[in-house]
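Sharing a chain and its predicted structure for anyone who wants a worked example. Both blocks are below, sequence first, tokens second.
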Amino acid sequence: MTVKRSSAAGVCWTLLMGCVFAAHAVTFEVMDGNSTCIKADLNASFSITYNTTNAEGNGSSCGGAGVPPELLVSFGAGHALTLLFSRDGRLYRVANISLQYNLSDTSTFPQSSSTGLMTVMTNATEISARLNSTYRCVSSSTVSLSAEVNLTFSDVRMEAYMSGANLSTDESVCSADQTVTTAAPTQSPRTTAAPSPVPPPAPERGNYTLTNRNGTACLLALMGLQLNITHRSKSLNQMVSEVVNLQPNRTTASGSCGFTVATLVLTEDLTNLTFTFTLNSTTQKYYLSAVNVSAFWPDMTERFVEGNGSLNFLQCSVGRSYMCSAEQTLSIVPSFSINTFRLQLQPFNVTASRFSAGTDRRS
């Protein structure tokens, strides 16, 4: 596997009150023999908060045999940015972003009270594009990797699962660029709550499945989802509660399965929803431990990003599926809640690609 860097990279580190910023402008090409599988032209900057007292692409891979394509950019003294890709029959996406940084690098982290390598990551990204098209996003977009680390992309042109050596002329433009440079895409009707809002009809039930590297189902979810977000309306210039049904035929599922942590990422047009499930090995019960949402609906004045990593919803014994046919509301934060309909899920110990037995927890 070879990685070509086709333009020079600029690296700049600036120290400011315990924060370090790194900026990179570079083009990378990941090749398997003579075939190009990933090409990326991007700027990336990092801000890392810490306590005080030159870019290379080696390690990238085109994947195969159940292993996802990977773009790994190493820079400085032990620092590295990694992008993992996934795809379905329609889209490819950045499924995971991780950053490794070296607090022992005193030129970058002067007077740091900690040393050694630190790694932070997230699978809550909004980078996705149609297969055989180039993802383009000139606007700056920030991804939070942890409470201390933020990553900002800009001027991005990138394509994975390439069929040729050059970036496709067909482009998938990010939503931030669409609001500035192009006409807004046609959206399905959305309901803006009035003083006496009429709720939308019950959402269609979606069937979402994750598979492991062997192609075996490892997470199963059947559910209708309705999102309730309070935001400032562009048209009304006031705070409104907008209720939107997630549409399964326009939603793609991705994520990961682990022994004690599993994630399900649902992406529909301008909405990205991430569920994190945790298995307590002591009690042998699993539960929904975190939910993150990012949305930029047409009537929003700015992108809505919220999450809660201290949840304890949908508890169930391992080896069984959680079921609730009645409507239930999951209050994530004061400005965001999820209504679930006809829910059945199993994020751990799936056998034969089927749900295990479960008891319907009607409310």
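Comments welcome. The domain at 191-346 is CATH 2.40.160.110 (Porin).
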